[in-house]
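Researcher: Next sequence.
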Amino acid sequence: MSQEIKDEIKKIGESWEATKKAQDQLEAEVKAGKTGLSEIKEKQDKIDADLNAALDMKAELEKTIAAVKRLGGIVGEESGATAEYKMEDLSSGMRKWMRKGMPQSFDGCDMSDVERKALQTNIDPQGGYTVMPFIGGVEKIIFESSPIRSLATVQTIGTNEYVGYHDDDEFGASWVGEINSRADTDTADIGEFRVPVREMYARFKISERMLEDSSWNVEQWAQTDVADKFGRFEATGFVTGSGILQPQGLVTATNNTSTPSAYVRGSVGALTTASATAITTDEVVTLRGYLKAGYRQNAKFLFTRGTETYVRKLKDGQGNYIWQPNYQIGGSDMLLGQGVVICEDMAEITNSAITIAVGDIRAAYLIVDRVGMSILKDPYTAASTGQTVFHMRKRVGAGIKNFDALKYLVQKA
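Model: Next structure:
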């Protein structure tokens, strides 16, 4: 597995060098006034696609390594049949199985007998739903599917709403002489904010015969599938959620475009680009500059892979590319010295869209968990038709708690 990561990192390096070479060539040709540059542009698009694929594969392999490491502790504790197979057998089989999308059968995964048996001993042979306890339960999958959850502050609460306070003002003070009179100074103004808990649900029926006669655990499969759906709902809500039924998304706050570098309670400083379909280096530099120094240490840039492909071509005044890949396992690519997080729920570069967000997400965004995924199995309601009803729900809320720790880049209308 480590070798495969190294291979992907090597591909990233090769593709990145090729990207820079193609971009430099294109800029030189344009500067020289040459036309008919479609061949160079096609070459550049192909290199960009290869680099994106390598970056995506590196990310997927890192996720697989994390899952296999979690499995390692369990495998070492097993006895009997499990002990016959080595961890590397399980790891190699897991890798092949996960690359095929974790299918319900191992057929077509190109596994050796040893790899297949190692997985069958530890994971249900019909498709991996029993891998859930090893990974950490259904709830863990929901958490890992959302990049915002991994960056934000997460708190479990026992009520239907989180109430917090904005300490965004300060007491006044002044210099004074030894016997001068002292006038009253300003008193700090505390503001209140609330993060209500929202709810998502699924309700479905499975026939009793299918539950009884299936050769694999249909109930577990259905629950896992819905959990995955919840995870994607949650991930999207944390980015673009709006309205009274969804959490407040990270990029849905009111834009403060008049004084983007200043703090205004309830709005996020936003820099408007000069073009509806382009971004410049100066705009990215200015946007980062709007963040106070105290937030920059943990700040991340958030945008889609498509926006990253565009930003990768930007250079500073000395001709250096402002985006740089990270060649370390688990490391984040960098933009102007800040980490990059790919957030596909954000908008691509288009008219009026928020295409880039930058900030200390842990300081800016709060997720509140009220009830993890709960499951109610109801064999009575639809018993007359030979079906069992499953009710699944999850209660979670989210919202911006510090508007000063976040900035937006908004495309021109």
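Model: The first strand starts at residue 153 and ends at 156. Residues 2-137 form one domain.
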